[in-house]
Design a protein that fits this description.
Blueprint lengths: L2 H16 L1 H7 L4 H23 L3 H16 L8 H12 L4 H16 L6 H23 L8 H18 L1 H6 L7 H6 L4 H5 L5 H22 L7 H23 L13 H10 L1
Length: about 280
């Protein structure tokens, strides 16, 4: 096996381990595009893990950002599977370099900001950590339509991030992070202490649904231009979006119990959604 094949295998193992939803959806892509998505995911996951699990996350994230700038000058360790695979991707596709930089800026936000006052602030953060991923993937998924689809690719990333936030309220609290905007919490009379106690009452459900409605609006925006994607990537992208949107329905079916447990879409449901596209 060639070293580049081993590098892509490494990236595939990363996504298969950490995101079964994305892995299932994007496995439907043609081989070369599929491998490119694996490499981009491995980059994002590396940054994410530094923030959530790093011993000195500020120093480590700054070092990773510096490494990326060196990578752009073709200065990287070829023994590192992620950089080796990514260098192959950058040589084959017209990648959006700024999207990668913006994503790293978003990861830095998680090290300095743990509360959000307004929906606009939350969406700005969500653009940096998730909307950017749409921009990273567009040159792979729809190279001839990348500029036309930019706005809606960002919308899909935003929708997915808001969905993550709604699923992970309890998990984020354990890291002393509250992404639910303070002004919307105030409107529904939900206090931080209520979240800490895991209280699911009328106010919390209305707050949750307020954000879910925003996510649904963003999904609809993203889905409105799915027919612009090439046929071979349309089903994977649409599938990834629909699988993620189903998380909202799953949480509802569990009576909004987002404290202490993480909800996933069942494999049978995933198969049914992908088969219906």
């Amino acid at each position: 096996m060639h070293r580049i094949d081993e590098a892509y295998d490494y990236c595939e193992k990363v996504i298969a381990r950490h995101s079964k939803t994305f892995y299932k959806a994007f496995s439907l892509l043609p081989k070369e595009d599929r491998k490119a998505v694996w490499a981009v995911y491995a980059f994002c996951r590396t940054a994410d893990d530094i923030v959530d699990e790093g011993k000195s996350p500020v120093l480590e994230l700054n070092a990773f950002a510096f490494e990326f700038e060196r990578f752009l000058k073709s200065e990287f360790d070829p023994a590192n599977g992620m950089w080796l695979a990514l260098s192959d991707v950058f040589s084959r596709y017209e990648m959006d370099v700024q999207a990668f930089r913006d994503m790293l800026e978003g990861q830095k936000m998680d090290l300095t900001i743990n509360r959000y006052q307004t929906m606009d602030q939350l969406l700005n953060y969500s653009y940096h950590v998730a909307g950017t991923v749409g921009l990273m993937l567009l040159p792979i998924l729809a190279p001839k339509k990348a500029k036309d689809l930019k706005k809606d690719a960002i919308a899909l990333g935003l929708a997915m991030q808001v969905t993550n936030i709604l699923r992970d309220v309890g998990e984020d609290l354990e890291r002393d992070r509250i992404y639910l905007p303070q002004d919307i919490m105030d409107f529904y009379s939900v206090k931080e202490e209520d979240l800490m106690e895991g209280i699911v009452n009328k106010g919390f459900i209305e707050l949750w649904e307020h954000l879910a409605e925003e996510a649904e609006r963003l999904y609809q925006q993203a889905f409105s231009t799915m027919n612009e994607y090439p046929l071979h990537s349309r089903i994977p992208v649409y599938g990834a979006g629909k699988l993620y949107r189903e998380i909202l329905s799953t949480v509802r079916s569990k009576q909004y119990q987002v404290f202490g447990e993480k909800h996933y879409v069942s494999d049978d449901k995933k198969k049914a959604i992908l088969a219906s596209i």
